[in-house]
Protein backbone atom coordinates (compact mmCIF):
# COMPACT_ATOMS: atom_id res chain seq x y z
CA UNK A 1 0.00 0.00 0.00
CA UNK A 2 1.29 3.45 -0.92
CA UNK A 3 0.36 6.59 1.05
CA UNK A 4 1.45 9.85 -0.53
CA UNK A 5 -0.53 13.01 -1.14
CA UNK A 6 1.27 13.83 -4.35
CA UNK A 7 -0.39 11.98 -7.26
CA UNK A 8 2.75 11.85 -9.42
CA UNK A 9 4.77 10.37 -6.61
CA UNK A 10 2.07 7.97 -5.59
CA UNK A 11 1.67 6.64 -9.11
CA UNK A 12 5.43 6.49 -9.68
CA UNK A 13 6.07 4.55 -6.48
CA UNK A 14 3.14 2.23 -7.15
CA UNK A 15 4.42 1.57 -10.68
CA UNK A 16 7.95 0.84 -9.47
CA UNK A 17 6.56 -1.60 -6.91
CA UNK A 18 4.29 -3.31 -9.45
CA UNK A 19 7.17 -3.66 -11.92
CA UNK A 20 9.28 -5.22 -9.21
CA UNK A 21 6.63 -7.85 -8.66
CA UNK A 22 4.84 -6.45 -5.64
CA UNK A 23 1.09 -6.33 -5.50
CA UNK A 24 -0.04 -2.79 -4.74
CA UNK A 25 -3.32 -3.28 -2.91
CA UNK A 26 -4.06 0.41 -2.43
CA UNK A 27 -2.65 3.85 -3.15
CA UNK A 28 -4.16 6.70 -1.18
CA UNK A 29 -3.39 10.36 -0.59
CA UNK A 30 -4.83 11.09 2.85
CA UNK A 31 -3.98 9.89 6.34
CA UNK A 32 -7.46 9.11 7.67
CA UNK A 33 -8.30 7.37 4.43
CA UNK A 34 -5.05 5.41 4.70
CA UNK A 35 -6.01 4.07 8.13
CA UNK A 36 -9.50 3.08 6.93
CA UNK A 37 -8.23 1.41 3.78
CA UNK A 38 -5.40 -0.34 5.62
CA UNK A 39 -7.93 -1.84 8.04
CA UNK A 40 -9.85 -3.21 5.05
CA UNK A 41 -7.08 -4.43 2.71
CA UNK A 42 -4.55 -5.43 5.41
CA UNK A 43 -1.35 -4.62 3.54
CA UNK A 44 1.92 -6.27 4.52
CA UNK A 45 3.97 -3.20 3.77
CA UNK A 46 2.99 0.46 3.81
CA UNK A 47 5.17 3.00 2.03
CA UNK A 48 4.34 6.17 3.90
CA UNK A 49 5.01 9.80 3.06
CA UNK A 50 5.15 11.95 6.20
CA UNK A 51 3.58 15.01 4.63
CA UNK A 52 -0.13 14.42 4.36
CA UNK A 53 -2.93 16.94 4.14
CA UNK A 54 -5.04 15.77 7.06
CA UNK A 55 -3.28 13.62 9.67
CA UNK A 56 0.45 13.87 10.25
CA UNK A 57 2.50 10.96 8.98
CA UNK A 58 3.44 10.25 12.60
CA UNK A 59 -0.22 9.80 13.53
CA UNK A 60 -0.72 7.48 10.58
CA UNK A 61 2.34 5.43 11.59
CA UNK A 62 0.95 5.20 15.12
CA UNK A 63 -2.48 4.17 13.82
CA UNK A 64 -0.98 1.53 11.55
CA UNK A 65 1.12 0.13 14.40
CA UNK A 66 -2.05 -0.40 16.42
CA UNK A 67 -3.45 -2.81 13.82
CA UNK A 68 -3.25 -6.54 14.39
CA UNK A 69 -1.06 -7.72 12.81
CA UNK A 70 0.59 -4.35 12.16
CA UNK A 71 1.88 -3.76 8.63
CA UNK A 72 5.57 -2.99 8.21
CA UNK A 73 5.92 0.72 7.57
CA UNK A 74 8.65 2.20 5.40
CA UNK A 75 8.76 5.97 5.73
CA UNK A 76 9.57 7.74 2.50
CA UNK A 77 10.25 11.33 3.36
CA UNK A 78 11.66 14.47 1.91
CA UNK A 79 14.79 15.77 3.59
CA UNK A 80 14.61 18.13 6.54
CA UNK A 81 11.82 16.41 8.46
CA UNK A 82 14.05 14.82 11.10
CA UNK A 83 11.73 15.29 14.03
CA UNK A 84 8.82 13.66 12.25
CA UNK A 85 10.97 10.81 11.00
CA UNK A 86 12.20 10.09 14.50
CA UNK A 87 8.67 10.15 15.89
CA UNK A 88 7.39 7.88 13.13
CA UNK A 89 10.20 5.40 13.75
CA UNK A 90 9.56 5.47 17.48
CA UNK A 91 5.89 4.86 16.72
CA UNK A 92 6.86 1.66 14.95
CA UNK A 93 8.00 2.45 11.42
CA UNK A 94 10.62 -0.07 10.29
CA UNK A 95 12.72 2.27 8.26
CA UNK A 96 13.22 5.56 6.56
CA UNK A 97 14.36 6.46 3.12
CA UNK A 98 14.85 9.85 1.50
CA UNK A 99 12.64 10.62 -1.46
CA UNK A 100 15.76 11.43 -3.41
CA UNK A 101 16.98 7.84 -3.11
CA UNK A 102 17.34 5.96 -6.35
CA UNK A 103 14.82 3.41 -7.57
CA UNK A 104 17.24 0.58 -6.79
CA UNK A 105 17.78 1.80 -3.24
CA UNK A 106 14.05 2.17 -2.80
CA UNK A 107 13.26 -1.35 -4.01
CA UNK A 108 16.05 -2.73 -1.88
CA UNK A 109 14.58 -0.95 1.13
CA UNK A 110 11.13 -2.37 0.40
CA UNK A 111 12.62 -5.84 0.07
CA UNK A 112 14.38 -5.53 3.41
CA UNK A 113 11.27 -4.12 5.05
CA UNK A 114 9.32 -7.09 3.72
CA UNK A 115 11.87 -9.40 5.32
CA UNK A 116 11.39 -7.66 8.63
CA UNK A 117 14.72 -5.86 8.70
CA UNK A 118 15.15 -2.28 9.78
CA UNK A 119 16.07 0.01 6.92
CA UNK A 120 18.78 2.08 8.51
CA UNK A 121 20.01 4.96 6.44
CA UNK A 122 22.89 7.04 7.81
CA UNK A 123 20.35 9.80 8.50
CA UNK A 124 18.20 7.53 10.62
CA UNK A 125 21.22 6.24 12.51
CA UNK A 126 22.15 9.82 13.36
CA UNK A 127 18.63 10.48 14.62
CA UNK A 128 18.38 7.32 16.68
CA UNK A 129 21.80 7.89 18.24
CA UNK A 130 20.82 11.47 19.02
CA UNK A 131 17.60 10.25 20.64
CA UNK A 132 19.43 7.80 22.90
CA UNK A 133 21.80 10.55 23.95
CA UNK A 134 18.91 12.91 24.58
CA UNK A 135 17.29 10.29 26.80
CA UNK A 136 20.57 9.66 28.60
CA UNK A 137 21.07 13.38 29.24
CA UNK A 138 17.70 13.79 30.87
CA UNK A 139 17.92 14.63 34.56
CA UNK A 140 15.22 12.09 35.49
CA UNK A 141 16.44 8.75 36.87
CA UNK A 142 17.83 6.73 34.01
CA UNK A 143 14.93 4.48 33.22
CA UNK A 144 15.16 5.08 29.52
CA UNK A 145 16.78 2.62 27.19
CA UNK A 146 20.51 2.83 26.69
CA UNK A 147 22.88 1.47 24.10
CA UNK A 148 25.67 -0.96 24.71
CA UNK A 149 29.11 0.20 23.65
CA UNK A 150 28.99 -2.10 20.67
CA UNK A 151 25.60 -0.82 19.59
CA UNK A 152 26.82 2.78 19.83
CA UNK A 153 29.86 1.86 17.79
CA UNK A 154 27.74 0.22 15.10
CA UNK A 155 25.25 3.09 14.96
CA UNK A 156 28.04 5.62 14.57
CA UNK A 157 29.49 3.67 11.69
CA UNK A 158 26.07 3.46 10.02
CA UNK A 159 25.68 7.21 10.50
CA UNK A 160 29.05 7.70 8.82
CA UNK A 161 27.71 5.89 5.78
CA UNK A 162 29.37 2.50 6.11
CA UNK A 163 27.43 -0.45 4.76
CA UNK A 164 26.69 -3.40 7.03
CA UNK A 165 29.31 -5.32 5.14
CA UNK A 166 31.96 -2.67 5.74
CA UNK A 167 31.00 -2.49 9.41
CA UNK A 168 31.21 -6.27 9.73
CA UNK A 169 34.71 -6.21 8.22
CA UNK A 170 35.89 -3.36 10.38
CA UNK A 171 34.59 -4.74 13.66
CA UNK A 172 35.25 -8.36 12.71
CA UNK A 173 31.65 -9.38 13.15
CA UNK A 174 29.26 -11.30 10.97
CA UNK A 175 26.90 -9.40 8.72
CA UNK A 176 23.98 -10.87 10.65
CA UNK A 177 25.36 -9.63 14.00
CA UNK A 178 25.68 -6.10 12.69
CA UNK A 179 22.10 -6.30 11.48
CA UNK A 180 20.95 -7.58 14.88
CA UNK A 181 22.71 -4.76 16.68
CA UNK A 182 21.00 -2.21 14.49
CA UNK A 183 17.64 -3.89 14.86
CA UNK A 184 18.06 -3.96 18.64
CA UNK A 185 18.65 -0.23 18.90
CA UNK A 186 15.39 0.35 17.09
CA UNK A 187 13.41 -2.24 19.06
CA UNK A 188 14.53 -0.80 22.39
CA UNK A 189 13.50 2.67 21.31
CA UNK A 190 10.09 1.52 20.11
CA UNK A 191 9.52 -0.48 23.27
CA UNK A 192 10.51 2.51 25.37
CA UNK A 193 8.08 4.63 23.39
CA UNK A 194 5.23 2.20 24.05
CA UNK A 195 6.08 2.05 27.75
CA UNK A 196 6.14 5.84 27.86
CA UNK A 197 2.73 6.02 26.23
CA UNK A 198 1.28 3.55 28.72
CA UNK A 199 2.85 5.41 31.64
CA UNK A 200 1.46 8.65 30.33
CA UNK A 201 -1.97 7.07 29.96
CA UNK A 202 -1.87 5.79 33.56
CA UNK A 203 -0.72 9.16 34.88
CA UNK A 204 -3.57 10.83 33.07
CA UNK A 205 -6.03 8.29 34.36
CA UNK A 206 -6.90 7.11 30.90
CA UNK A 207 -6.59 3.47 31.91
CA UNK A 208 -9.79 3.73 33.92
CA UNK A 209 -11.96 4.51 30.96
CA UNK B 1 -3.67 56.57 11.45
CA UNK B 2 -6.99 56.49 13.27
CA UNK B 3 -6.94 53.96 16.01
CA UNK B 4 -9.85 52.26 17.64
CA UNK B 5 -8.56 53.17 21.04
CA UNK B 6 -8.49 56.88 20.15
CA UNK B 7 -12.18 56.80 19.25
CA UNK B 8 -13.03 55.42 22.64
CA UNK B 9 -11.02 58.20 24.31
CA UNK B 10 -13.11 60.81 22.50
CA UNK B 11 -16.32 59.05 23.49
CA UNK B 12 -15.17 59.12 27.12
CA UNK B 13 -14.54 62.88 26.89
CA UNK B 14 -18.04 63.31 25.42
CA UNK B 15 -19.57 61.38 28.33
CA UNK B 16 -17.57 63.52 30.75
CA UNK B 17 -18.89 66.71 29.15
CA UNK B 18 -22.52 65.63 29.24
CA UNK B 19 -22.30 64.45 32.85
CA UNK B 20 -20.49 67.65 33.89
CA UNK B 21 -23.17 69.74 32.18
CA UNK B 22 -25.83 67.98 34.26
CA UNK B 23 -23.71 68.54 37.38
CA UNK B 24 -23.30 72.25 36.58
CA UNK B 25 -27.10 72.49 36.21
CA UNK B 26 -27.67 70.82 39.59
CA UNK B 27 -25.14 73.11 41.30
CA UNK B 28 -26.79 76.13 39.63
CA UNK B 29 -30.30 75.09 40.78
CA UNK B 30 -29.18 74.30 44.34
CA UNK B 31 -27.59 77.72 44.59
CA UNK B 32 -30.96 79.15 43.64
CA UNK B 33 -29.67 80.59 40.39
CA UNK B 34 -27.03 82.73 42.07
CA UNK B 35 -27.26 86.49 41.92
CA UNK B 36 -28.35 86.76 38.30
CA UNK B 37 -30.30 83.67 37.15
CA UNK B 38 -31.00 85.11 33.69
CA UNK B 39 -27.30 85.40 32.82
CA UNK B 40 -26.80 82.01 34.48
CA UNK B 41 -29.36 80.35 32.21
CA UNK B 42 -27.75 82.05 29.23
CA UNK B 43 -24.30 80.66 30.13
CA UNK B 44 -25.73 77.19 30.78
CA UNK B 45 -27.48 77.38 27.41
CA UNK B 46 -24.19 78.16 25.69
CA UNK B 47 -22.57 75.26 27.56
CA UNK B 48 -25.34 72.88 26.49
CA UNK B 49 -25.08 73.95 22.85
CA UNK B 50 -21.29 73.65 22.93
CA UNK B 51 -21.54 70.21 24.55
CA UNK B 52 -23.74 68.97 21.74
CA UNK B 53 -21.47 70.60 19.15
CA UNK B 54 -18.28 69.08 20.54
CA UNK B 55 -19.74 65.64 21.07
CA UNK B 56 -20.58 65.67 17.40
CA UNK B 57 -17.40 67.39 16.16
CA UNK B 58 -14.90 65.28 18.10
CA UNK B 59 -16.60 62.10 16.91
CA UNK B 60 -15.54 62.91 13.35
CA UNK B 61 -11.88 62.44 12.64
CA UNK B 62 -11.57 65.27 10.08
CA UNK B 63 -12.87 67.84 12.56
CA UNK B 64 -10.43 66.94 15.30
CA UNK B 65 -7.61 69.43 15.07
CA UNK B 66 -6.16 72.68 16.29
CA UNK B 67 -9.04 74.95 15.16
CA UNK B 68 -11.61 72.88 17.03
CA UNK B 69 -9.39 72.62 20.10
CA UNK B 70 -8.82 76.41 20.05
CA UNK B 71 -12.55 77.07 19.71
CA UNK B 72 -13.22 74.60 22.51
CA UNK B 73 -10.81 76.46 24.77
CA UNK B 74 -12.26 79.88 23.86
CA UNK B 75 -15.85 78.83 24.61
CA UNK B 76 -14.83 77.14 27.85
CA UNK B 77 -12.79 80.11 29.07
CA UNK B 78 -15.59 82.45 27.94
CA UNK B 79 -18.18 80.59 30.01
CA UNK B 80 -15.80 80.44 32.93
CA UNK B 81 -15.10 84.18 32.79
CA UNK B 82 -18.85 84.84 32.93
CA UNK B 83 -18.86 83.43 36.47
CA UNK B 84 -18.57 86.80 38.33
CA UNK B 85 -21.44 88.15 36.22
CA UNK B 86 -23.67 85.27 37.35
CA UNK B 87 -22.55 84.71 40.89
CA UNK B 88 -22.04 88.38 41.66
CA UNK B 89 -18.97 88.75 43.70
CA UNK B 90 -17.18 86.31 45.82
CA UNK B 91 -18.94 83.24 47.08
CA UNK B 92 -17.06 81.07 49.51
CA UNK B 93 -16.16 77.55 48.34
CA UNK B 94 -18.46 77.80 45.39
CA UNK B 95 -17.67 76.29 42.06
CA UNK B 96 -17.59 78.52 39.03
CA UNK B 97 -20.74 78.46 36.90
CA UNK B 98 -19.16 75.88 34.59
CA UNK B 99 -18.42 73.60 37.57
CA UNK B 100 -16.40 70.57 36.34
CA UNK B 101 -17.48 71.16 32.74
CA UNK B 102 -14.39 73.29 32.19
CA UNK B 103 -12.33 70.08 32.45
CA UNK B 104 -13.72 68.91 29.10
CA UNK B 105 -11.44 71.18 27.10
CA UNK B 106 -8.42 70.10 29.17
CA UNK B 107 -9.18 66.42 28.54
CA UNK B 108 -9.67 67.10 24.82
CA UNK B 109 -6.27 68.82 24.60
CA UNK B 110 -4.69 65.97 26.50
CA UNK B 111 -6.18 63.27 24.29
CA UNK B 112 -5.23 65.14 21.15
CA UNK B 113 -1.75 66.37 22.04
CA UNK B 114 -0.52 64.25 24.93
CA UNK B 115 0.90 65.28 28.29
CA UNK B 116 2.23 68.70 27.35
CA UNK B 117 -0.92 69.86 25.57
CA UNK B 118 -2.91 68.65 28.57
CA UNK B 119 -0.73 70.65 30.92
CA UNK B 120 -0.96 73.80 28.77
CA UNK B 121 -4.76 73.51 28.63
CA UNK B 122 -4.89 72.98 32.39
CA UNK B 123 -2.78 76.13 32.86
CA UNK B 124 -5.05 78.26 30.66
CA UNK B 125 -8.28 77.10 32.31
CA UNK B 126 -6.78 77.38 35.79
CA UNK B 127 -5.60 80.94 35.15
CA UNK B 128 -9.07 81.90 33.96
CA UNK B 129 -10.58 80.22 37.01
CA UNK B 130 -8.22 81.98 39.38
CA UNK B 131 -8.84 85.28 37.63
CA UNK B 132 -12.58 84.95 38.29
CA UNK B 133 -11.79 84.42 41.97
CA UNK B 134 -9.53 87.44 41.95
CA UNK B 135 -12.27 89.43 40.24
CA UNK B 136 -14.58 88.22 42.99
CA UNK B 137 -12.37 90.00 45.43
CA UNK B 138 -10.65 87.01 47.01
CA UNK B 139 -7.25 87.62 48.50
CA UNK B 140 -4.31 86.01 46.76
CA UNK B 141 -3.40 83.82 49.76
CA UNK B 142 -6.90 82.42 49.99
CA UNK B 143 -7.24 81.44 46.34
CA UNK B 144 -8.40 77.81 46.21
CA UNK B 145 -5.88 75.78 44.27
CA UNK B 146 -7.61 72.42 44.53
CA UNK B 147 -9.26 72.86 41.15
CA UNK B 148 -5.97 73.88 39.57
CA UNK B 149 -4.18 70.80 40.86
CA UNK B 150 -6.97 68.52 39.71
CA UNK B 151 -7.03 70.10 36.27
CA UNK B 152 -3.27 69.63 35.88
CA UNK B 153 -3.48 66.02 37.04
CA UNK B 154 -6.35 65.29 34.69
CA UNK B 155 -4.69 66.97 31.69
CA UNK B 156 -1.28 65.37 32.16
CA UNK B 157 -2.61 61.93 33.05
CA UNK B 158 -5.13 61.66 30.27
CA UNK B 159 -2.57 62.99 27.81
CA UNK B 160 -0.04 60.44 28.95
CA UNK B 161 -2.43 57.51 28.88
CA UNK B 162 -3.82 58.49 25.48
CA UNK B 163 -0.34 58.58 24.01
CA UNK B 164 0.57 55.25 25.62
CA UNK B 165 -2.58 53.63 24.31
CA UNK B 166 -1.91 54.96 20.84
CA UNK B 167 1.63 53.56 20.91
CA UNK B 168 0.43 50.22 22.25
CA UNK B 169 -2.11 49.97 19.50
CA UNK B 170 0.47 50.79 16.84
CA UNK B 171 2.73 48.07 18.24
CA UNK B 172 -0.14 45.63 18.24
CA UNK B 173 -0.91 46.50 14.63
CA UNK B 174 2.72 45.88 13.74
CA UNK B 175 2.66 42.53 15.50
CA UNK B 176 -0.51 41.54 13.70
CA UNK B 177 1.05 42.43 10.36
CA UNK B 178 4.19 40.48 11.19
CA UNK B 179 2.14 37.48 12.17
CA UNK B 180 0.13 37.71 8.99
CA UNK B 181 3.38 37.82 7.01
CA UNK B 182 4.61 34.79 8.92
CA UNK B 183 1.44 32.89 8.20
CA UNK B 184 1.62 33.79 4.55
CA UNK B 185 5.19 32.53 4.44
CA UNK B 186 4.11 29.32 6.09
CA UNK B 187 1.30 28.89 3.60
CA UNK B 188 3.71 29.48 0.73
CA UNK B 189 6.16 27.02 2.23
CA UNK B 190 3.47 24.37 2.51
CA UNK B 191 2.41 25.02 -1.06
CA UNK B 192 5.99 24.76 -2.29
CA UNK B 193 6.50 21.66 -0.25
CA UNK B 194 3.43 19.97 -1.63
CA UNK B 195 4.17 20.78 -5.25
CA UNK B 196 7.51 22.16 -6.37
CA UNK B 197 9.71 20.14 -4.01
CA UNK B 198 7.91 16.92 -4.82
CA UNK B 199 8.34 17.45 -8.54
CA UNK B 200 12.02 18.33 -8.12
CA UNK B 201 12.56 15.17 -6.08
CA UNK B 202 10.73 13.19 -8.72
CA UNK B 203 12.83 14.68 -11.52
CA UNK B 204 15.95 13.79 -9.56
CA UNK B 205 14.84 10.21 -9.11
CA UNK B 206 13.66 9.63 -12.67
CA UNK B 207 16.76 11.36 -13.99
CA UNK B 208 18.98 8.91 -12.17
CA UNK B 209 17.04 6.02 -13.63
CA UNK B 210 17.20 7.27 -17.20
CA UNK B 211 20.90 8.09 -16.89
CA UNK B 212 23.12 10.12 -19.19
CA UNK B 213 22.18 13.75 -19.57
CA UNK B 214 18.94 13.19 -17.70
CA UNK B 215 20.96 12.08 -14.68
CA UNK B 216 22.78 15.42 -14.74
CA UNK B 217 19.41 17.22 -14.88
CA UNK B 218 18.22 15.06 -12.03
CA UNK B 219 21.25 15.94 -9.97
CA UNK B 220 20.63 19.66 -10.56
CA UNK B 221 16.97 19.22 -9.62
CA UNK B 222 18.06 17.50 -6.43
CA UNK B 223 20.40 20.34 -5.52
CA UNK B 224 17.65 22.87 -6.15
CA UNK B 225 15.28 20.82 -4.06
CA UNK B 226 17.67 20.87 -1.12
CA UNK B 227 18.32 24.61 -1.52
CA UNK B 228 14.65 25.50 -1.83
CA UNK B 229 13.73 23.34 1.12
CA UNK B 230 16.33 25.09 3.21
CA UNK B 231 14.85 28.44 2.13
CA UNK B 232 11.26 27.66 3.03
CA UNK B 233 12.08 25.41 5.97
CA UNK B 234 9.40 25.64 8.64
CA UNK B 235 11.78 24.81 11.43
CA UNK B 236 10.28 26.54 14.45
CA UNK B 237 12.25 28.31 17.12
CA UNK B 238 15.45 30.05 16.12
CA UNK B 239 18.29 29.62 18.58
CA UNK B 240 19.09 32.40 21.01
CA UNK B 241 21.00 35.46 19.91
CA UNK B 242 24.65 34.76 19.31
CA UNK B 243 24.30 31.01 19.00
CA UNK B 244 23.50 28.79 16.06
CA UNK B 245 22.23 25.32 15.34
CA UNK B 246 25.09 23.49 13.67
CA UNK B 247 22.59 21.11 12.04
CA UNK B 248 21.17 23.89 9.89
CA UNK B 249 24.64 24.88 8.67
CA UNK B 250 25.67 21.31 7.91
CA UNK B 251 22.49 20.39 6.09
CA UNK B 252 23.37 22.92 3.41
CA UNK B 253 26.14 20.55 2.31
CA UNK B 254 23.64 17.77 1.64
CA UNK B 255 23.39 16.79 -2.02
CA UNK B 256 23.11 13.78 -4.24
CA UNK B 257 26.60 12.66 -3.28
CA UNK B 258 26.93 14.11 0.22
CA UNK B 259 24.79 12.53 2.95
CA UNK B 260 24.32 14.55 6.13
CA UNK B 261 23.26 12.77 9.33
CA UNK B 262 22.30 14.77 12.39
CA UNK B 263 20.40 14.20 15.61
CA UNK B 264 16.79 15.29 16.06
CA UNK B 265 17.68 17.89 18.69
CA UNK B 266 19.56 21.13 17.97
CA UNK B 267 23.35 21.19 18.14
CA UNK B 268 23.66 24.59 19.70
CA UNK B 269 27.05 26.29 19.53
CA UNK B 270 28.15 29.92 19.68
CA UNK B 271 27.45 31.35 16.22
CA UNK B 272 31.13 31.98 15.45
CA UNK B 273 32.16 28.47 16.51
CA UNK B 274 29.35 26.89 14.50
CA UNK B 275 30.30 28.92 11.42
CA UNK B 276 33.98 28.04 11.76
CA UNK B 277 33.24 24.36 12.28
CA UNK B 278 30.87 24.33 9.32
CA UNK B 279 33.57 26.02 7.24
CA UNK B 280 36.04 23.33 8.30
CA UNK B 281 33.54 20.68 7.18
CA UNK B 282 33.19 22.55 3.89
CA UNK B 283 36.97 22.51 3.47
CA UNK B 284 37.04 18.78 4.16
CA UNK B 285 34.32 18.21 1.56
CA UNK B 286 36.23 20.33 -0.96
CA UNK B 287 39.17 18.11 -0.26
CA UNK B 288 37.09 15.01 -0.96
CA UNK B 289 35.87 16.52 -4.24
CA UNK B 290 39.47 17.36 -5.23
CA UNK B 291 41.03 14.00 -4.41
CA UNK B 292 38.20 11.59 -5.05
CA UNK B 293 36.29 13.29 -7.83
CA UNK B 294 33.44 15.75 -8.08
CA UNK B 295 30.69 13.17 -7.48
CA UNK B 296 32.49 10.99 -4.99
CA UNK B 297 30.15 10.02 -2.19
CA UNK B 298 30.85 11.55 1.20
CA UNK B 299 29.14 11.41 4.56
CA UNK B 300 28.88 14.12 7.17
CA UNK B 301 27.83 12.94 10.60
CA UNK B 302 27.28 15.32 13.51
CA UNK B 303 26.68 14.19 17.07
CA UNK B 304 26.79 15.55 20.57
CA UNK B 305 27.88 13.58 23.58
CA UNK B 306 28.96 14.69 27.05
CA UNK B 307 29.15 18.33 26.03
CA UNK B 308 31.30 17.67 22.99
CA UNK B 309 30.08 18.18 19.46
CA UNK B 310 31.75 15.89 16.96
CA UNK B 311 31.49 16.14 13.21
CA UNK B 312 32.89 13.38 11.06
CA UNK B 313 33.51 13.70 7.34
CA UNK B 314 34.08 10.38 5.64
CA UNK B 315 34.84 9.45 2.07
CA UNK B 316 35.62 6.23 0.29
CA UNK B 317 38.43 7.60 -1.81
CA UNK B 318 41.94 6.25 -2.15
CA UNK B 319 42.85 7.35 1.36
CA UNK B 320 45.97 9.09 2.51
CA UNK B 321 49.16 7.00 2.41
CA UNK B 322 50.81 6.54 5.79
CA UNK B 323 53.28 9.23 6.70
CA UNK B 324 51.99 11.51 4.01
CA UNK B 325 50.58 14.08 6.43
CA UNK B 326 53.73 14.13 8.53
CA UNK B 327 55.80 14.44 5.40
CA UNK B 328 53.77 17.42 4.21
CA UNK B 329 54.11 19.12 7.58
CA UNK B 330 57.82 18.42 7.71
CA UNK B 331 58.46 20.04 4.35
CA UNK B 332 56.60 23.11 5.55
CA UNK B 333 53.57 22.55 3.35
CA UNK B 334 50.28 22.69 5.15
CA UNK B 335 48.03 20.02 3.77
CA UNK B 336 44.29 20.51 3.73
CA UNK B 337 43.93 18.30 6.77
CA UNK B 338 46.46 20.53 8.57
CA UNK B 339 44.56 23.69 7.83
CA UNK B 340 41.37 22.03 9.10
CA UNK B 341 43.28 21.03 12.21
CA UNK B 342 44.39 24.64 12.70
CA UNK B 343 40.85 25.94 12.45
CA UNK B 344 39.35 23.45 14.85
CA UNK B 345 42.19 23.71 17.37
CA UNK B 346 41.67 27.47 17.42
CA UNK B 347 38.18 26.68 18.68
CA UNK B 348 39.63 24.59 21.49
CA UNK B 349 38.79 21.38 19.68
CA UNK B 350 40.64 18.37 18.36
CA UNK B 351 40.95 16.73 14.95
CA UNK B 352 41.59 13.07 14.30
CA UNK B 353 42.33 11.81 10.83
CA UNK B 354 41.88 8.11 10.21
CA UNK B 355 42.93 6.91 6.82
CA UNK B 356 44.40 3.92 5.12
CA UNK B 357 45.11 3.38 1.45
CA UNK B 358 42.00 1.99 -0.22
CA UNK B 359 39.80 2.46 2.77
CA UNK B 360 38.88 6.07 2.50
CA UNK B 361 39.47 8.87 4.95
CA UNK B 362 37.69 9.89 8.09
CA UNK B 363 38.25 13.35 9.52
CA UNK B 364 36.80 13.68 12.98
CA UNK B 365 36.44 17.18 14.41
CA UNK B 366 35.41 17.71 18.02
CA UNK B 367 34.73 20.96 19.83
CA UNK B 368 33.49 21.48 23.38
CA UNK B 369 29.93 22.71 23.70
CA UNK B 370 29.47 25.49 26.26
CA UNK B 371 26.68 24.82 28.74
UniProtKB/TrEMBL annotation, chain B:
Keywords: Kinase, Membrane, Transferase, Transmembrane, Transmembrane helix, Two-component regulatory system. GO terms for biological process: phosphorelay signal transduction system. The chain crosses the membrane at residues 12-32, 38-60, 67-86, 143-162. One of its GO terms (molecular function) is kinase activity. Pfam families: DUF5931, HATPase_c. SUPFAM superfamilies: ATPase domain of HSP90 chaperone/DNA topoisomerase II/histidine kinase (SSF55874). SMART domains: HATPase_c (SM00387). Residues 272-371 form the Histidine kinase/HSP90-like ATPase domain. PANTHER family: NITRATE/NITRITE SENSOR PROTEIN NARX-RELATED, OXYGEN SENSOR HISTIDINE KINASE NREB. NCBIfam families: HK_morpho_MacS. This is Histidine kinase. It comes from Planobispora siamensis.
Amino acid sequence: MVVDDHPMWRDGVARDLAEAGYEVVAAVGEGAQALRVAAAVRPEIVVLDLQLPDLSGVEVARGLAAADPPPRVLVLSASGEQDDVLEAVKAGAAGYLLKSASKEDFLEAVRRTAEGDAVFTPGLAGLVLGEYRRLAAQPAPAQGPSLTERETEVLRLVAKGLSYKQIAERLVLSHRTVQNHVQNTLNKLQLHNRVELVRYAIEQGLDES
Amino acid sequence: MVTAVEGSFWRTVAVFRAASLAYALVVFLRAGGYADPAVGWLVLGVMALWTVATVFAYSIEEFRGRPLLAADMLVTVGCLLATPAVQGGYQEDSLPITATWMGGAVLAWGVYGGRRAGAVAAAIVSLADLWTRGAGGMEFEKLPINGTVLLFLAGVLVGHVARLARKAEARMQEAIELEAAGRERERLARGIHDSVLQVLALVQRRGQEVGGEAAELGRLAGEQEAALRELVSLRPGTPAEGSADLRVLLQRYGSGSVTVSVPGTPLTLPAAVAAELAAAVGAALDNVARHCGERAPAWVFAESDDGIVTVTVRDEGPGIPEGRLEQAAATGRLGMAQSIRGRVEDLGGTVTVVSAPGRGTEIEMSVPQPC
